[in-house]
Each structure stands twice: as structure tokens, then as C-alpha cells.
Amino acid sequence: MKRTDWKKCIAALALSVLAAVSAVPLSAQAQSLPYQSYNYDYWEDIIFTPAPYEPDYVVSGLSLTYEGEPLGNFVTPQDVCVADDGSIYLADTGNNRIVVLDSSAKKVLEVITGFENDGAEDSFNQPYGVAVSETDQLYIADSQNHRIVVLNKDRSLSRIIANPTSEVLEDGFVFVPLKVTVDYADRVYCIAQNMFEGIMVFETDGRFAGFFGTINVEITLWERFWRKIASKEERAKSQLFIPTEFTGVDIDPDGFVYASNIDTTGIQGVRRLNPKGQDVIRKGFRENLGGDLQIAGSTDYAGPSQFTDVVYREHGIYSCLDRKRGRIFTYDHEGNLLYIFGGIGTQDGTFQLPVAIENVGGDVIVLDATKANITYYRETEYGRLINRAVALRYSGDETAAVELWQKVLLLDEDNELANTGIGKAYLTGGDYVSAMKYLELGMARDYYSVAYKRYRNDFLTDHASVFLTGILILAAAGVLVSQLKKRGIIRKRKKA
Amino acid sequence: MRELFSREKWRYLFYTISHPMDGFYWIRHQERGSVALAVFLVILFSACFTANRLLASFVVSDIDERTVNSAYELLTVLILYILLCVSNWSVTCLMNGEGRLKDIAIAIGYGTFPISVVFVIATIVSQFVADDEQAFYTLILAVGIAYGLILILIGIMQVHNYTMGKTLVTLLLTLAAFLVIVFLILLMTNLMGMVYNFFHSIYTELIFRV
């Protein structure tokens, strides 16, 4: 080796050491998070990613004061809701009150413990769910009082929804509203306890309108076979085939209802229901919206994710909260799994029993019933890039998203969404070779095939003269040889 | 080993592939085939199979390249080959088959050749197909594999001088014999393991006490 080469080697070595040293604080920071962020690749292998969100701070009732008095800790709070002005409504179920916080949850704006009902003071009993309408009316699922209370902005009673009557409801049905949400027309969507038929819908005047988004039970051929050969006693003993209950609802600006449910097969834990109650969610190439994909095993920790709440965020992005492993799964409008973060644990940023998820001005907040606190998650650079790139794609501006996807690749070079995004932009730009390269990395067969076909067409058209000349020469040579053979100028080869 | 480079044997391989009925008959009766060549063809088959899994375009192939292990696949193919030959031989011995183990090995080995060829062709073709043209790739593969299987079937029929019906019956029995052999091997390794564990525990007992 020459002397100069040695110098180069030493310089390269020094540079790499420098790079390694400067990279230390970053990786140390990543390890200080109490959970690992990951995603699934095309083959459903776990690929660890940078954290898309990191816990910012945690708020519990102990750290808050209201009108000079300590607020006291929350007791099994079950729901949070964010109003348009950013204020947070928290259903402090065990304390029978609704606490209104500002958007950072550091200041208590109001505590609602009761309201005036026909001149008498009325209060809540285990208020389980809470929602705020566009007209700033407050909807409270007052579960043990079997009613939904609607309060005006000045906290005077607007109306009470109770005792739904309909011939589809069984006699002796007890209405226990758990979660509630309201759309732009003040229609109320309510998840009630033991109500397997679907989400209960109430018209503006409080009339029960019917069920919404019923989940059909699917009985496999195998189960049918066993039921067929089972005796009557065995059949009575066996599990009933009842549909799963919905667990959480949210509504997007277009009036579509996002509803989470617990799917024991781990295939679809969230639905997007149109005004007719039909599921119109897009499921992506895996046909899976069930959270974790690697769920095999027989331990308590194994098994499908159990989505307990869903929040529509913006630009078609929605996040689902898994109470089984305390993770937050975020999907885009095409059903691609964008990122996963969170976990079960005792550290800040992990949960014991997460029950509700909301979106506060870009931050994701999660309510934990056992820890009785709210965790604020702030998006990292990685999360911000993905969110913005997906938003651009949602609005149809894929070319502008390329720059963002390229930055995503710097942080996470295996990101299939980023590779596909870049590839699609090259495809529209007409650079088919680059498009094919990135689309292959993104495992996007369909778009790759489009790019490849166009590339092949271009190649054939560009080289048509070469091909045609070649064919012509071959044909001429063939004719020449056969003529020469005929006239005996070249001899035919003898058979061996 | 020298047979591998014999021009005669190679030419006869191609003759057998194009004229299987005739070809396999004379392999049995005139020593025109070669076991070395057959084993070589099986190794070639394993290589082409692995190459197809590794190199076929991602449009047609759903295989994660990281999970492909060529050495492991070669071993599997060779073991399967030996087991198949032995189980067929043990069945046909009892059923008046005329073929020797050698002939069976040649029949199966030669039959893999068209499959190896189509693996290579299909792998090359896969580089030039789009998503909706996968049918070409599948067709090429299917034709080659079907031809290879037919060759093996005719080969076994001819070396044993069987009728087609009897060949099919013996092939079914071969499958059963195959499973019996696998079962016996598993049983044996299990029992050997137990014996080993027995002596090993005596050994550890002694070590701890002495």
C-alpha cells in the first residue's frame, strides 16, 4: 500500500471515531424512553424505528388547584374530550364530577359537579363519558343515573336523554351510557353497556333513532360443524356468538364516526362509519387494522391488541389506543400503519390501564384510569416528518412530500412508506429508473409495475431502430445461407 | 466420477428427456445412465431452486431473501432425494420391481433436470414482467415442473417394468414407506438422546459426589 493510502485510511478512521462519539448522546436519549418504537415491515417483521412521539409531561389531580383549593386526585377517570377552543373536559368518574382544564392541563378552568334540574340541584353518578359539540354544549354520559345530560355553555340544563324506547330494545333494558360523541347536527352517538347491537343514535330531540354500525358475527365453517354435531346441553353450555362491543368513538369533521372495538382475531379493531352506519375504512395492503401483528404465544402479554379508544387527528390520520400492551397505533387514511409507541409500565410515558386518547393541538394525550393521570406526548422530528408527509399526500401533493420522505429516510432508512412515497413522486415526474429503485425498496408491487411498464415501453421505442435492423440482418443472413446451401456453395452438415 | 464428463452420458441424458419411455428402459437394461450425473443434477436442482428464491424479481416472489439459506436447502434436497430413492426401492423390491437402487436414483435425478432448467428460465423472465404479467412466470414454472414430474413417473415405471396403474400404487406406498422411515429415524434419535441423557446424568451424579 502506498503512503498516501495510509494517510487516507487514518483520516477515515479518525472521522468514523468522531462520528461515533458525536452519535452517543443521540442514542443515549433514545434509550431513555420507557418504551420502544417500532413498525412492521412487508414481511411483518418488527423493525425498530426512532421514537415518533416522546412523553413530555404527566398531569395528575394532585398537582392541580382550583380557586385556591387543591383539586384532589382523580379517581378512575374514564374519558377525556377536547373542545374546539383546546380546553380539555375530563370525566372524573369516581369523584362524580367533570373537570375542565386548559389545553396544557396545567390550569383548572372549571369543575362541574352538578346542575339545576327543574329547580332542584342534581348531580352525577359515575359520569363515564364526555363530549363537547360544535355549539359548545356539553354531553355527559351519566352512567349510573342511566341518562345523558346535555348542558349549555353557561352550564344550565339543555336536555336530558334517558329511557330510550323502541321495539328493538328488549323489555327491562337498563340504559347505561358509557361513551358519547356528537356530530355537527347534534345527533348523539352513544356506546351503552351490554349493547351488542351497535352504537345507539339519538336524534337532536333526544328520540332514540336506532342502532348504528352493527358488527356482524362471523361464524366459521369449523364452528358451524361443531355446533351441528354438539348436543343440546353442550350447545347451551358453549359460548354464545355475540358481536364485540364498541369501546370508543370519535367523529371527524366530515361527520364520519370512528369507532374502536375489541377484535379477538386481531384483524380489525377500528371502523369508520358513514352516515348510514356502514364501515368505509380502508385497510391497506395487509387488510389489517388490529394493532400488533406478532401476537402468537400463550402468556398474558400475548394475544391481539385491544383497542379501547380511537382519535381522529387530522388529514386522515387516526390513532388507536391498545389497553393490552399500552401502545398507540397510528394509521393513515389508506390504512398504512405509520408508527407505534407507548407501553405498559410504571414510568412516566407508560400506562397501567389506558382508557382514552385525544389530540390537543398536535400533542397526543392519553388518560390512564389506574394511574389517574394524563400523559402528554410531543411529536419528535421523526413523527413530525411522517405526519406532514402523510398530510401532503392526503391533500394530493405527493411531489412536495418527497423532501420530507427523504428526511424520514435519513432517520429510518428502512421506512417502506417513505421509499414508496419517493418512488411515486419519481413515477409522476417521469424518472422511471429512480422510481423503480425506490418502489422496490418500499415493496410496492403495483406502482413498481406501472413504472417498469413505462420504462420498458420507453426502452423499446428508443431502441426500435436497433431491434428492427437486427431482425432485418438476421432475416437476410438466413435467406443468404439457405440460398448458398441450395446451390451447394456451402455443404450441409452431415449427421453423426 | 469420470462419467460426469462423459459426452456419451450427457447425450443420453438429453435423449432420455426427449424420449423418456425408450430412454429409461435402456438405462435399466444397458447401463446407459450414470448415478454420478444424477446426483450432480440433484445438486444442480437445489442450486437452481435457491437461485430462483434469491434472484427472482420481487414482483413475482414473496420470499424474504434473509430467510434463504442455500446450504440448508442443499442438505434438505439431498436428504429428500436419498429418502425417496430408498423408500421407493424398499417398496418395489417387494413388488417385483426390476429396477435397482441405482436405476431409481438415475430416474429421479434425471427427472429434476427440466425443473432446474425452468427455474433458471423463469428467474430470468421474472426480471422482465410486471405485476399483471405474472401468469407468464407461473406458466413457465408449471410446465417445467409438470414435465419433470411426468419424467420421474415414467422413469420409475420403466426401470421397474411396471404398468402405469402399478406405478401409481407403488408411489403411494413409497410415500407411506417414506413416512415410516422418517418416523423410525425420529424415534431412534429420540431414544438415542434418552440413552445419552441417562449416561450423562450418571456422569454428572458421579462428578458431584466424588
Under CATH, the topology of the largest domain in chain A can be stated as Neuraminidase
Q: Structural class from helices and strands of chain A?
A: alpha+beta
Largest interface, counted with CB-CB under 8 A?
Answer: A-B, 12 and 7 residues
Mean pLDDT of chain B: 93
What's the overall geometry of chain A?
elongated
Strand arrangement, major sheet of chain A: 3-29-28-27
What structural class do the secondary elements of chain B suggest? mainly alpha
**How many DSSP H or I helices of chain A?**
9
Largest sheet of chain B: none
Number of strands of chain A: 29
Percent of residues of chain B in helical segments?
over 70%
Largest sheet of chain A: 4 strands, antiparallel
Poorly predicted runs of 5 or more residues of chain A:
21-29
Please describe the structure with a list of short key phrases separated by commas or semicolons.
heterodimer, A: 496 residues, alpha+beta, Neuraminidase, Serine Threonine Protein Phosphatase 5, Tetratricopeptide repeat, 2 domains, four-stranded antiparallel β-sheet, 29 strands, B: 210 residues, mainly alpha, 7 helices, 80% helix
